[in-house]
Amino acid sequence: MDMESASSVVLQALTQATSQDTALLKPAEEQLRQWETQPGFYSVLLNIFNNHMLDVNVRWLAVLYFKNGIDRYWRRVAPNALSEDEKTSLRAGLITNFNEPVNQIATQIAVLIAKVARLDCPRQWPELIPILLESVKGQDGLQQHRALLTFYHVTKTLASKRLAQDKRLFQDLASGIYSFACSLWSHHTDCFLQQVLAVDQAHALSSLERTLLSLKVLRKLTVHGFQEPQQNMEVMGFLNAVFERLKQFLECNFLEVHPCAFIPLIQRSLEFAVSYVFTAAGEGLVFERFTVQCMNLIKTIVKNEAYKPCKNIEDSKPESLEAHKIKTAFFTHPTLTEIGRRLVSHYFLLTKEELAMWEEDPEGFAVEETGGDSWKYSLRPCTEVLFLDIFHNYSQTLTPVLLEMVLNLQGPSNVEDPVQLLMKDAVYNAVGLAAYELFDNIDFDQWFNNQLLGELQVSHHRYKLIRRRVIWLIGQWISVKFKSELRPLLYEVILNLMQDPDLVTCQFLFLNVSPVDDFEFRTEQFLPYLESIFSLLFQLLQQVTECDTKMQVLHVISCVIERVNIQIRPYVGCLVQYLPLLWKQSEEHNMLRCAILTTLVHLVQGLGAESKNLYLFLLPVIQLSTDVSQPPHVYLLEDGLELWLVTLENSPAITPELLRIFQNMSALLVQSSCCCAEFAALVVTA
């Protein structure tokens, strides 16, 4: 039977084998099974699956029969083995062109070529790799992709061989093509980044696929192709380049600038980021900066407004609905549960470095935790922001998860178990961050009385971790859900903690509790504690050295003075004497001087007419702050004008010293902003 007749018969059998009719299917399968050992059968299959005009299901089946035949009959020693002549012809036919239009068939062809390569390359098939490399260089997009796909599967298969001789052959191959593979990856990566910036979505996706295939090839070559990769400059150069490229990928703001164009990449991006950050796959493989970028990627996708449908679905854009559908399909209950648990139980845990810093430099640790310059670029704030965004968007799923974690930690923790202490600290941190989301789920007043208050009274040195976190937790909830009747008890607790020498950082945490800086504050409840708290705050202001901490202390002092007003007068003597020194020391710290100005505003209001006793210090401060010819005015002007205004309002009489400041007024009215000019006009009126 000639090839044309054989092709017709085999094609008919394959067509019947794809039928749903068992009367046709069974005989066809039996016939194909008999032909498996017939000379020329695989050549006919090759012609059939290379004919793009035929039915896809038929071509798919032809590929599968061909692939199974390789496993059974390609080896020389196999029963009914293929002849060497037919194998030579088949090898040539497999790499004649790389233009398969159907992705699934293209993948199967690449796999069967790799199977043949495992047995014949390079000895019987030396031309395979050169032809693949040449095809990868081609300008035709489809041919380039299919050749690269085949190149990957061939490389993957050859790298898996374990005999010593095969390993040496693969190492020879790797040394010969490594440079080319690196340049190929770099080229496709550059193309992808350029197309992303140009909002060329279709080409960007295509380039991304090529980039990933190139990277997979390099992974096999790098891991299995060199006995001592550290001695090879190209290998080490590639590994260094991976980190730089990864940074470019993750820091690319394409998602933020063109969210709709990014929709086709949402699924893949989430799979990538979540896999490395929230599953065992990434343990030990990722570094902090990489984790931060992955979390930022997840956060941006979760909270992106373009990916949220309108309340009235009919008003939503198709792109928003598509993005929302992808997100909903990805963020399943198990996925969200795992993310929530890992965020709290892994990323929220204080590290050894943080604990050591707390011991060695309590103030520095407190500054870092409350938003120091290095803190804002570290993993912890990124983790907390992601937790808040995910909790806000998926609170129905995550609230029970967090409440279960709280329930598991009820009662005092074992001071001899540092893991349990760290876990409770992390869980309480999560409850504090999600305070507004948990409003209806936690009876905080009851929790405070039955659990938290007791934990604040545990005096063991190791329990300071929990005492510190509990007082912070109360600070997060105090403006959310905390009965005013409990305030006196809270003030007593704060006083005890601020005097606890074992818990220096709790003094700083008082600044975050701000029991005087919320709507439920009652002056009469606070007055019995005013003298002690104000005295401790003043001591703290003197003791701290960090500029940020002094600003925080001054903020709380200002709030106290503002709340109690004239009743502060008996207790401000020491502060009045200290502020001139602090002003002088802060000459290079304009933001600290702004905080001093704000404190002075409230101090003048509290002292009323008695503020005239401050004029020796007060008036030069106003003079400097409102002089537009002085460089610091850029920072100090608005606060300085406010201080000037309240000073005039509380002055019992206009003195020559007060009038002298009006020398600054003309320049203010001419040069300053509209806002400051309006304020200046108020000063004139006053």
TrEMBL record:
Interacts with UBE2E3 and RPL12. One of its GO terms (molecular function) is small GTPase binding. The keyword Electron transport does not apply. Keywords: Acetylation, Cytoplasm, Nucleus, Phosphoprotein, Protein transport, Repeat, Transport. Residues 28-100 form the Importin N-terminal domain. It is found in: Cytoplasm; Nucleus. It comes from Oncorhynchus mykiss. GO terms for biological process: protein import into nucleus. InterPro entries: ARM-like (IPR011989), ARM-type_fold (IPR016024), Importin-beta_N (IPR001494), TPR_IPO7/11-like (IPR058669). PANTHER family: IMPORTIN-11 (PTHR10997:SF7), IMPORTIN-7, 8, 11 (PTHR10997). Belongs to the importin beta family. This is Importin-11. GO terms for cellular component: cytosol; nuclear envelope.
